[in-house]
Amino acid sequence: MGERQEKAGFLESAGRAAVGAAQSLRDALEFMGRVVAAVACGIARPRSFKLPDFGAVFLRAGAEAVPVTLLVGFLLGFIIAYMSATMLNKFGAEIYVANLIGLALIRELGTIVAAIVLAARSASAFAAEIGTMVVNDEIAAMRTMGIDPVRHLALPRIAAGALALPLLSLFADLAGLFGGYLTLAIFGYSPRIFLTNAFAFCSAGDLATTLAKGVVFGILIAATGCRCGLETGAGSDAVGKATTSAVVSALVLFIAADGIFALVSSALGA
Amino acid sequence: MPDNPTYVIETDGLSVGYGERAVQRGLNLRIRRGEIFVLLGGSGCGKSTVLRTLVGLVPPLAGSVRILGQVFAEAGREPDENPALLRHIGVMFQNGALFGSKTLLENCALPQETLTARTPEEIESISREKLRDVGLLDFADFLPKEISGGMQKRAAIARALTLDPDILFLDEPSAGLDPVTSAELDDLILRIREERGTTIVLVSHELASIYAIADRAVFLDRATHSVLDEGAPAFLRDNSPHQAVRAFFNRTPERKPPDHA
Predict the structure, then answer these.
(1) Per residue of chain A (270 residues), what is the pLDDT tens digit?
(2) Is residue A233 domain-shared with residue A99, that is, in the same domain?
(3) Is pLDDT at B2 greater than 50 in this prediction?
(4) I want to staple A250 with a disulfide (CB 3.0 to 4.6 A). Which of A57, A177, A224, B251 is the partner?
(5) A30 CB near a chain B CB, below 8 Å?
(6) Same domain, residue pair A183 and A94
(7) What is the dihedral of CA A144, A146, A152, A154, to 10 degrees?
(8) Contact B153, B96 (CB under 8 A)
(9) pLDDT class of B261 with cuts at 50, 70, 90
(10) Which of residues 120 through 149 in chain A touch B, CB cutoff 8 A?
(11) Same domain, B62 and B104
(12) What are the phi and psi torsion angles at B40 (to 5°)?
């Protein structure tokens, strides 16, 4: 009897979780639909796009994130290169660390580092800013004035995310390459040899894919932050919950999108 | 345009609430042009929810809301944020709900930029005029956090007036204000009605304020989820057959029978 109840409890919880996940997916898709409608409206009426708002958000999400992106990129490049070099040195193959670092950073890690920084800094900030506006009735006030919060608040943030992330990815790549070079410098390799090997297996297509991934991840991360902010509930802990949800959802979404990119690239033979 | 020019707001069988839980049911309100109408009741009776339903923020659970004779909100229909009707209403939220990153002047400009075809020069001129009307012209370039709570409420009223609305909705305008500031706000509300003929619908707990400005009030009951009584505040205080209404106006706690479980 007790075991059956336990099973029913488990099934009920699993069912509720599945319904909750489906509902979240539906909400996310609905939100993306509203974003697309807002973009269309922005294209039809370019003057309605708030350029100063976009500039301010881009400065905060992009320019102010450069130092931390450089630091994390540098450390990641240095650590991966150092650990790889320690192993490969036993076979006299430490120069291949340059190839490894170049390939890993440009194809994957640079964008991932930048995306993690954007999710941690900006998705949380967007959710907190917009969530506080919900709690303070500012969003309600907007609605009574016929102002679409998605167009007015989310669109400049999503545009800033789409532009900032590819640029941050490049900064992360450069910092990681520098960290990798420092390791090889210990083994006496010159910058020229390092760079020649680092780019040996990379093509212009890899760079283009990285930039495209940056745009897509930037849109996903910024949109997730805005959506979580707009869905903030009532109560003193609501903004905190929205912020946490924004960071977790943004991380999961962009990793899932990265997986899709990898599958598509593989299918296309890239 | 209006079917019946006497009433600017009409609700028919309006039930309001969140999810499936109704906090008020079967409201048939008729609010006249130029009237100052107060939604009264104890905490948790749904006054603010009724106000939010009237301004289109919360969809009705049943019934409909008509503004200036046109259906504005209806059960089973998402609020469509009808710009043509939004143009006729102004809303002041309990804490002002000014946009924190914008100056008072920019706050006043925003609804005009969205809902009117006014030029930037006209928008600035009208924004300054409304701020002067509420005594805040010298603070036009201040951010909301740089002024007091009472000033924020006046600024929110100025913002709500920028479209010269027919109806002004105010959610607890006196809440959290000292008696002098509260009385100043009452004077401002009366002046708006006198000068512009604006219909004003407000939620309030402040008895002094209610007696000073209200033409008519409805008392919403938490226990029955319905209107308990309706009339001029002084009349309700002295003549209401309902103990809960008299207790509210006379500030006497309701005596509940002891629980002999």
Answers:
(1) 556 666 668 888 888 888 888 888 888 888 888 888 888 887 777 777 778 888 999 999 889 999 999 999 999 999 999 999 988 888 888 888 899 999 899 988 999 999 999 999 999 999 999 999 999 999 999 988 888 899 889 999 999 999 999 999 999 999 999 999 998 898 888 889 888 888 888 888 888 889 999 999 999 999 999 999 999 988 778 999 999 999 999 999 999 999 998 888 888 775
(2) yes
(3) no
(4) A224
(5) no
(6) yes
(7) 70
(8) yes
(9) very low
(10) 133, 136-138, 140-141, 143-148
(11) no
(12) -115, 165
Min Cα separation B255/chain A (Å)? 31
Could you tell me how far CA B94 lies from the centroid of its own chain? 9
Mutate one of A138, A145, A147 to test the B interface: name it (highest B CB count within 10 A).
Answer: A145
Whole-number pLDDT of residue B183? 87
Last residue of one domain, picked from the residues B132, B164, B196: B164
Same domain, A105 and A210: yes
| B55–A contact, CB cutoff 8 A | yes
Tokens of B59: 């969809």
> Are residues A135 and A5 part of one domain?
no
Give B-chain residues touching A138 at CB under 8 angstroms.
97-100
Read off φ and ψ for residue A166, nearest 5 degrees: -60, -40
Q: Are A32 and A125 contained in the same domain?
A: no
Distances (CA, A) of B117 to A145, B110, B111: 14, 12, 11
pLDDT of residue A148: 87
> What confidence score (pLDDT) does residue A175 get?
95
**Does A146 contact B91 at a Cβ distance shorter than 8 Å?**
no
Residues B71 and B32 in one domain: yes
Distance CA(B182)–CA(B150), nearest Å, equals 8
Kindly state whether residues A100 and A13 are assigned to the same domain.
no
Number of structural domains chain B divides into:
2
Q: Distance between CA atoms of B95 and A133, rounded to whole angstroms?
A: 12
Give how far Cα A158 sits from Cα of A222, A246, B43, Å: 5, 14, 40
| Least confident segment among A39-43, A48-52, B79-83, B190-194 | B79-83
How many domains are contained in chain A? 2
Identify whether residues B175 and B245 lie together within a single domain.
yes
User: What is the extent of the structural domain holding A110?
Assistant: 49-267
Q: Are residues A220 and A246 in the same domain?
A: yes
A256 contact B CB<8A: no
pLDDT value of residue A116: 95
User: Which residues in chain A are contacts of B100 at CB distance < 8 A?
Assistant: 133, 136, 138
Q: Which of B137, B164, B191 is the last residue of a domain?
A: B164
Expressed as residue numbers, the domain containing B105 is 97-164
A-chain CB neighbours of B87 within 8 Å are 146
Same domain, B159 and B173: no
Q: What does the alpha-carbon distance between residue B133 and residue B140 come to, in Å, rounded to a whole number?
A: 12
B115 with A141: Cβ contact below 8 A: no
Question: The CATH number of the domain where B170 resides is what?
Answer: 3.40.50.300
Partner A contacted by B100 (CB < 8 A): yes
Task: Report the pLDDT averaged over residues B181-190.
Answer: 88
